[in-house]
Amino acid sequence: MFEQTFKNIDDILHKDAGCSSELDYTEQTSWMLFLKYLDDFEQERAMEAEMMGEDYPYIIDEAHRWSAWAAPKDVNGSFDHNTALTGDDLMDYVDGELFPYLKGFKQRATGPDTIEYKIGEIFGEIKNKIQSGYSLRDALEKVDELRFRSQQEKHELSHLYETKIKNMGNAGRNGGEYYTPRPLIRAMIDVIQPQIGETIYDGAAGSAGFLCEAYDYLRKGGREQKELSTSALKTLQEKTFYAKEKKSLAYVIAIMNMILHGIEAPNVVHTNTLGENLQDIQPSNQHDIILANPPFGGKERKEVQQNFPIKTGETAFLFLQHFIKMLKPGGRAAIVIKNTFLSNTDNAAVALRRELLENCNLHTILDCPAKTFLGAGVKTVVLFFTKGEPTQNIWYYQLDPGRSLGKTNPLNDADMAEFVELQKTFADSEKSWTVSVTEIAQGTESDLSVKNPNTKEEAALREPADIIAEIIALDKESEDILAGIEGLL
């Protein structure tokens, strides 16, 4: 229904001088979508209030509502081209009045968990990059065709928005930074099995894919698919999902993605998660479940490293320490990390592995094949652990979809099914095996690398001297044969 509208918006932005990539298209579509969503949300609340004989206190002043400036309508409900701003007038209004007004909400809001604060945060971070007032007018008219009224409409919009995020992740840079494959996320959630009433946290939220998928899982009643009560739905909306994100664009996209999935006032904080000292994290800040794919390879400054007991410049290792601290005792985590973490011999990696083995039950390691993350050049594993009990055994699963993954052949849910099924009982198979922690602890470096005992060992490499001797013997044999042939001529 809305797919063509999304394509048309991209086409308009593609022709505008201010938008040069998939990142820009998604960013600019996001702020327009957000304001259209807000208008539909407010209209709906106003109608509900009217039916109850009450007044609805609008968040946005009348002059700055979507229906006043972006899509004015005449008495028949048709688009009113006579009053709609366009060209330079539209640009002057959006850049000079609308954005400053929306940015001001941050100062006027009663607290950071309000929709008003989120509006202020978004428009304090995002800039209108569209340069032509005529392009902007065309884009606004297309966005106005989208509707957020029914659950089905929101579902379709969230699906299309996910596709935009996926394309953005594939548009160069590090694909994994914006997009973790949804089949992998769903498998991680299936193993962790969140319940209503538990809090779920991602301190490196990106586009909030983990939280959106966890919301969908719980909204459908978890593994049992049971109907949710009104109070359970309220808990799901307000007291379940918590996120932090450092980058402005990802922050805005995370909020929009969560809203489209049905979380009306997302608890996303725009901050550098690693700037928080581990000693300052109180039990009241801790969560039941952590699902995350933290950025790796980044180098954090020395003063940030001071916040952590295990000092390292590797961003992913700092995040892992943060996540362990943010878990409640007995809390469960599933975290994507590059596979070199399992075997690196540097002090930080060794100390972190020991921390996991001694203070957490690292019960499962999922080994992902190359190109699971499009655009990311490293291989990854997923660590599943419970905080507060030492590791006894680690169950490994080597994911092998039986084909080479790529943009046209990505990971799918069927690829993950065997892992999810076998993990329930930690069953051994051609692709899975169990290692006792006593076997690991014998090595001083606690090497956890993936070594499938079911893989047939490759023939040992021969010594160079043996190979040279064989070449000489073969040359001698060839010489004798040629001499024999020559004798026959």
UniProtKB/TrEMBL annotation:
EC numbers for this chain: 2.1.1.72
Nucleus listed as a keyword: no
UniProt-recorded name of the protein: site-specific DNA-methyltransferase (adenine-specific)
Family of the protein in this entry: Belongs to the N(4)/N(6)-methyltransferase family.
Coiled-coil segments on the chain, per record: none
BP GO terms, sorted: methylation
Domain of life, per lineage: Bacteria
Keywords: Methyltransferase, Restriction system, S-adenosyl-L-methionine, Transferase
Enzyme class label: transferase
GO molecular function, one term: methyltransferase activity
DNA methylase adenine-specific domain residues: 153-457
Domain N6 adenine-specific DNA methyltransferase N-terminal: 4-80
Catalysed reactions, as listed in the record: a 2'-deoxyadenosine in DNA + S-adenosyl-L-methionine = an N(6)-methyl-2'-deoxyadenosine in DNA + S-adenosyl-L-homocysteine + H(+)
InterPro entries linked: D12N6_MeTrfase_N (IPR022749), DNA_Adenine_Mtase (IPR051537), DNA_methylase_A-5 (IPR003356), DNA_methylase_N6_adenine_CS (IPR002052), SAM-dependent_MTases_sf (IPR029063), T1MK-like_N_sf (IPR038333)
